[in-house]
Amino acid sequence: MIKVIDVTVLDDYNLLLLFSNGEKRIFDMKPQLHDGFEELLEVSKFEQVKIVHGALTWFRESSYELDICPNVTYDESISFNYVPTYCSN
Questions:
Q1: CA distance 89 to 77
Q2: pTM of the predicted model, to two decimals?
Q3: What share of the chain is helix, strand, coil (3-state, %, to 5)?
Q4: Signed CA dihedral, 69, 38, 49, 59: sign only
Q5: Which residues touch 18 (CB under 8 Å, ≥6 apart)?
Q6: I need a surface site. Which of 7, 21, 45, 56 has the fewest CB within 10 A?
Q7: Distance of alpha carbon 30 from its chain centroid, rounded?
Q8: Looking at the predicted structure, is the pLDDT value of residue 31 above 60?
Q9: Domain assignment present for 68
Q10: Does 86 fall in a domain?
Protein backbone atom coordinates (compact mmCIF):
# COMPACT_ATOMS: atom_id res chain seq x y z
CA MET A 1 0.00 0.00 0.00
CA ILE A 2 1.31 3.42 -0.94
CA LYS A 3 1.82 5.99 1.82
CA VAL A 4 2.52 9.70 2.04
CA ILE A 5 5.88 10.22 3.74
CA ASP A 6 6.28 14.00 3.41
CA VAL A 7 3.99 16.96 2.76
CA THR A 8 4.67 20.59 1.88
CA VAL A 9 1.87 23.14 1.81
CA LEU A 10 1.81 25.18 -1.39
CA ASP A 11 -0.35 28.11 -2.51
CA ASP A 12 -4.02 27.80 -3.49
CA TYR A 13 -4.75 24.68 -1.40
CA ASN A 14 -2.18 22.54 -3.18
CA LEU A 15 0.08 20.08 -1.42
CA LEU A 16 3.41 18.71 -2.60
CA LEU A 17 3.50 15.07 -1.53
CA LEU A 18 6.33 12.57 -1.39
CA PHE A 19 5.04 8.99 -1.57
CA SER A 20 6.62 5.79 -0.31
CA ASN A 21 7.43 4.78 -3.90
CA GLY A 22 9.70 7.84 -4.22
CA GLU A 23 7.32 9.87 -6.41
CA LYS A 24 6.64 13.54 -5.79
CA ARG A 25 3.13 14.60 -6.76
CA ILE A 26 0.94 17.69 -6.40
CA PHE A 27 -2.48 17.20 -4.83
CA ASP A 28 -5.13 19.89 -5.31
CA MET A 29 -7.34 19.95 -2.21
CA LYS A 30 -9.88 22.43 -3.58
CA PRO A 31 -12.43 19.77 -4.69
CA GLN A 32 -12.40 18.20 -1.21
CA LEU A 33 -12.90 21.55 0.52
CA HIS A 34 -16.57 21.43 -0.47
CA ASP A 35 -17.04 17.74 0.26
CA GLY A 36 -16.72 17.38 4.02
CA PHE A 37 -13.53 19.39 4.52
CA GLU A 38 -15.10 22.87 4.57
CA GLU A 39 -13.41 23.87 7.82
CA LEU A 40 -10.05 23.67 6.00
CA LEU A 41 -11.07 26.68 3.93
CA GLU A 42 -9.50 28.60 6.81
CA VAL A 43 -5.90 28.65 5.58
CA SER A 44 -4.38 28.48 9.06
CA LYS A 45 -6.21 25.17 9.67
CA PHE A 46 -5.34 23.82 6.23
CA GLU A 47 -1.66 24.51 6.87
CA GLN A 48 -1.75 22.29 9.99
CA VAL A 49 -1.71 19.11 7.90
CA LYS A 50 0.19 16.17 9.39
CA ILE A 51 0.95 12.66 8.22
CA VAL A 52 -0.48 9.87 10.36
CA HIS A 53 0.04 6.25 9.28
CA GLY A 54 0.78 7.45 5.74
CA ALA A 55 -2.37 9.57 5.36
CA LEU A 56 -2.87 13.34 5.28
CA THR A 57 -4.52 14.25 8.58
CA TRP A 58 -5.90 17.36 10.22
CA PHE A 59 -6.63 17.24 13.94
CA ARG A 60 -9.80 18.86 15.19
CA GLU A 61 -11.03 20.02 18.54
CA SER A 62 -13.82 17.45 18.32
CA SER A 63 -13.34 13.78 19.03
CA TYR A 64 -12.21 12.78 15.56
CA GLU A 65 -9.87 13.97 12.83
CA LEU A 66 -10.12 14.65 9.13
CA ASP A 67 -7.99 12.44 6.92
CA ILE A 68 -7.63 11.39 3.32
CA CYS A 69 -6.69 7.90 2.19
CA PRO A 70 -3.21 7.83 0.60
CA ASN A 71 -4.59 5.99 -2.45
CA VAL A 72 -6.98 8.88 -3.08
CA THR A 73 -4.23 11.47 -2.79
CA TYR A 74 -2.05 9.45 -5.16
CA ASP A 75 -4.77 8.76 -7.74
CA GLU A 76 -6.05 12.35 -7.74
CA SER A 77 -2.66 14.06 -7.87
CA ILE A 78 -0.38 14.91 -10.77
CA SER A 79 3.31 14.24 -11.13
CA PHE A 80 5.48 17.02 -9.76
CA ASN A 81 7.39 16.90 -13.05
CA TYR A 82 4.22 17.44 -15.11
CA VAL A 83 4.06 20.87 -16.71
CA PRO A 84 0.70 21.66 -18.32
CA THR A 85 0.77 23.31 -21.73
CA TYR A 86 -1.60 26.09 -22.63
CA CYS A 87 -2.64 27.34 -26.02
CA SER A 88 -2.30 31.03 -26.65
CA ASN A 89 -4.21 32.80 -29.36
A1: 29
A2: 0.86
A3: 20, 35, 45
A4: negative
A5: 4, 5, 6, 7, 24
A6: 21
A7: 9
A8: yes
A9: yes
A10: no
CATH number of the CATH domain containing 21: 3.30.2020
pLDDT at position 35, please?
81
**What is d(CA 74, CA 25) in angstroms, rounded to the nearest whole number?**
7
Mean pLDDT score, 53-75: 90
Q: Is residue 62 part of a domain?
A: yes
Average pLDDT of every residue of the chain:
90
User: How many DSSP H helices and E strands does the chain contain?
Assistant: 2, 7
Measured CA to CA, the distance from residue 39 to residue 47 in angstroms comes to 12
In-domain check, residue 87: no
What residues make up the domain containing 49?
4-79
